[in-house]
Amino acid sequence: MGVHSRHIRGALAFYDTNRQRLLEVIGPDVVEWKLRGDSFQQTAGTATDGRGYTTTVVEVGAGTSEAEASDEAGIEVELINAANDNDGQNLQLVGEKFQASSRHLYFGIKLEADEATQSDFLVGLGITDTDALGGITDGIYLEKLDAGTSISAVTEKDSTETQTDSLGTFADDTAMVLEFLFDGTSVYFFVDGVEVAIHTANIPDDEALTPTIQFLNGEAVAHRMKIHWARAFSIG
Question: Is the pTM for the entire model greater than 0.85?
Fold first, then answer.
């Protein structure tokens, strides 16, 4: 896999063999976010909320729902849930800095979970909300719901959704790359580097958004998600 470059709206963007998968962007009108393990390092043996993140946890069952830096090679952050149904966590970067107006937007994440069916997750950009899966009003995201393994793509504006289902199949302990790219007109969704959907409706172009990750159990068993990497860029 090589690294390539091109100019986007006056910025220099670097990408791998998947042209939409931005690795780094340099320019005067660039907003960037990268999930980093050092934001979730433990203090005195106790996991803490990530620095720079609003973290909302549910931990009715035994154990603690927490995000922590991973000590496994190639993994940035691990999300570990307490052991009740719907225990888990909602992470959002503090500050809404990404906007789908005339901007070029990219979001991508590589993740895996120990349980594909009995878990829920939502990843992407959304308005500030402590329970994104419970009904976010504005966002661009991909999700997988409890009792299924199918990936869905959603653009949502003022609580009105455009949703495309059955875009990929999540599997136990199997890494998957989920991405989207907004070019100022359309949102292109990708699963493992393959374009799977295009949305032109209900794009939230009047709200600023923030990187959002929510992971919940779908049963009364503690589950874990590993995040290899996650990043977002806004250009122009």
Answer: yes
